Amino acid sequence: MTDVRQRLAQAAAAGQDPTPDGAPVAAADPATDGVSRSLDEATTTGTAPGPVPPPPASMPVPRAPDTHPVPKVVRDAADWSWRLIIIAAAVAGVGWLAWELRVVIFPLVAGLLLAAGLQPLVRRLRTAGWGRGPAAAAVFIGFLLVVVGSLTLVGNAVGGQFQDVVDQAEEGLQEVRDWLAGPPFSIDEAQLDRYIDRAVALFQDDSSVTEQAATAATVAIEILVGLALALFALIFFLYDGERIWTWLVRLFPARARARAAAAGDVAWLTLGQYIRGTVLVALFDAVAITILLFILQVPLALPLGVLVFFGAFVPLIGAFVTGTVAVLVALVTQGLLIAIVVLVGLIVVQQIESNIFQPFILGRMVSVHPLAVAVAVAIGTLAGSIIGAIIAVPIVALVNTVGSYLASTRERPPPIASG
Questions:
Q1: What does the DSSP assignment read for 192-206?
Q2: What is the pLDDT of residue 237?
Q3: What is the DSSP string of 322-342?
Q4: Higher-confidence residue: 22 or 250?
Q5: Would you give the DSSP letter of residue 373?
Q6: Which helix (DSSP H) or strand (DSSP E) does residue 353 occupy?
Q7: What pLDDT is attached to residue 22?
Q8: Cα 310 to the chain's mean position, in Å?
Q9: Cα 191 to chain center, whole Å?
Q10: Side-chain half-sphere exposure of 385, counting CA atoms within 13 A
């Protein structure tokens, strides 16, 4: 740099071109021109050269105008639409196939739900030193004993009080007849019998009776086959569930097996928590209604409480619908005032369960918004009646949990190296 400065100073003093004779003069370059001006200023003023300004940035390349006749917003909406249509069609196809195979699918789902609730007991027995077979057999037999024992207890209670309820029901119907026979209706018993016969004739004839009998027989056979299949599946889910899931994971591509296995563990944990939370909620409803019926001395209090317990497995509406049976029994056996008290008590229990107990239990176990629960129950009821309403909320909980897990552990492409 010192030689360059000396040459420039000598050239300036002699008034000559510092370039050799005959040497070609390069075209002016903005960068080198800036360096030369900086050196000239340094030579003239005797100060050190300042920072060299950077070369001007390249101008952005103008983007070609969009000449497509359809706006980009419409094209994006169309892309989303046909993809959503395909997803909806796939979901509808799976739902239709499940409904057509409901005699097989629903018992398997029932066995899976029961296994999710009973699996922790099997795990505890195996931790205590039991073998896999004895642990699964002990839990399965204990489950059957509890169910059969409770049904036997309910049957004995119903058998002991059923005749009294029938007699009181006949007295209640006779009171209704007497009330209709008085003013302002003035309907005598003969007219009432004719009205009842006409109403029955509108909804029923000989052919419909035959069809209803055949339908009832078919439903009974499906229930028995489904119950046997559910218990059979429950045995193997308790005994060999881990191996079954390992075999299913092997069906995935090798690079996706680890994430699939982890997602399955998350789904199984969520399902077990949902079942245990639902049992606690149903037990709360059943105990509260049974205590209320015992206090009011309504017949069949224990069987009606068991009915409420099983009805509570249908979210939102199950316990209330089955509780209305208790209201009707109270109306027939104890009168209008006791029936109103039972109805008010049922509403209070439902409000406590829906607004306090259920959010506290299920909200901590399964994060599902109440609006999502209501929509899922409505769709499940329309699609699969009572069974659809029962399995709708677990499906929503699984989709929510597994989807959140897969989204949070999604593999991202490695960053592009600079340079």
A1: HHHHHHHHHHHH--H
A2: 92
A3: HHHHHHHHHHHHH-HHHHHHH
A4: 250
A5: H
A6: none
A7: 44
A8: 21
A9: 53
A10: 3
Burial 141-160 (b: 16+ CB within 10 A, else e): eebeeeeeeeeeebeebbee
Q: What is the mean pLDDT of the chain?
A: 76
300 SS3 class? coil
Per-residue model confidence (pLDDT) at position 315: 75
- Find, among 7, 3, 2, the residue nearest to 17 by Cα: 7
CA distance linking residue 280 with residue 276, whole number of Å:
6
Q: Nearest 5°: phi and psi at 314?
A: -90, 115
Helix ranges restricted to H, 296-317: 301-311
Residue 404 pLDDT > 70: yes
The pLDDT assigned to 415 comes to 47
Q: What confidence score (pLDDT) does residue 138 get?
A: 94
Q: Are 274 and 365 in contact (CB under 8 A)?
A: yes
The pLDDT value recorded for residue 58 is 58
DSSP strands (E only) in 30-159: none
Determine the pLDDT at residue 30: 47
SS3 for 141? helix
Q: Are 341 and 296 in contact (CB under 8 A)?
A: yes
Residue 153: band (very low, low, confident or very high) from pLDDT cuts 50, 70, 90: confident
Q: Are 333 and 299 in contact (CB under 8 A)?
A: yes
**Cα-Cα-Cα-Cα dihedral of 294, 296, 297, 301, to 10°?**
-40
How many CB atoms are closer than 10 A to CB 292?
22
* pLDDT tens readout for residues 91-103: 889 888 888 888 8
Instruction: Give the whole-angstrom CA distance, residue 48 versus residue 62.
Output: 41
Burial grade of 24 (CB within 10 A; 0-12, 13-18, 19 or more): exposed
Q: How confident is the model at residue 307 (pLDDT cuts 50, 70, 90)?
A: confident
What is the rounded distance in angstroms from the CA atom of residue 132 to the CA atom of residue 129? 9
d(CA 399, CA 128): 34
Conformation bin of residue 186: beta by default, left when phi > 0, alpha when psi is -120 to 50: left
**Burial of 202 per CB tally in 10 Å (0-12, 13-18, 19+):** exposed
CA-to-CA distance for 8 and 306, rounded, in angstroms?
A: 107
Closest by CA position to 309, among listed 301, 319, 317? 319
Determine contact, residues 323/289, Cβ cutoff 8 Å: yes
**Residue 202 CB partners (closer than 8 Å, separation 6+):** none
